[in-house]
Amino acid sequence: MILKICTVGEPVLRKKARALTREDILHPLMQCVIEHMRDTMRDAPGVGLAAPQVGLGIQLAVIEDREENMAALSPAEREERGREPVPFHVIVNPVLRLETPPEVEFFEGCLSLPGYSALVPRAARVRVECLDHRGEARVIEASGWYARILQHEIDHLNGTLYVDRMCRRSFTTLENFGRHWKGRSVEAVKAMLAGE
Ligand code: ZN
């Protein structure tokens, strides 16, 4: 089932989501929610989807980055983003620790702000303690684009959107992103945005 994705302005996107117990996770209805969220993420398509984005104020997100998602990137762009396929998985009640300062900037988007993008500074490496879809404890050490996805999704569970962290002058429609910014280095983008 494809769920409706809440867009910016929906109050649920601004609330801290509530934690789940192992029993909550193992409940057949929660397993259905996970399945529907996976289908919704793939349909969008997106590389992550947090429960508040489908109107559920719970600390759960699904993540998956498939090879086909990165087909439009050149080998050099893939390399500098540290973008590698990430198999489908679920994170519940995540506790995020940044292992490096949040200063790696790339354009990022969000299914809850369709049609827009901006440069967002993120940590290159993170450590996440969470539960998985079976309620088992997991520790994730991630870097590159996967680390960015984790930071973005965990922000959702705390009521934070990328527009709260973005380099504000870089905010763009996707149409203009394709027209003016795509393929440029971040340094070149920042120089152009300086407005000189
Ligand atoms: Zn998002």
Would you write up a description of this structure?
The longest helix is centred in the first third of the chain and has 16 residues, at about 30-45. The protein has a five-stranded antiparallel beta sheet, with helices on both faces. A three-stranded antiparallel beta sheet has the order 4-5-8. The protein is of the alpha+beta class and about 200 residues long. The mean pLDDT is about 95. The chain has helices at about 20-25, 30-45, 75-80, 145-155, 175-180, 185-195; strands at about 50, 60-65, 85-100, 105-110, 115-120, 125-130, 135-145, 170-175. The protein has six helices and eight strands, in the order ααββαβββββαβαα.
List the helices and strands and how they pair.
Layout: H1 22-26, H2 28-43, E1 48-50, E2 60-65, H3 75-81, E3 86-98, E4 104-108, E5 116-122, E6 125-131, E7 137-143, H4 144-157, E8 172-173, H5 174-181, H6 186-193
This protein binds zinc ion (ZN).
The site of zinc ion (ZN) has 5 residues, from helix 4.
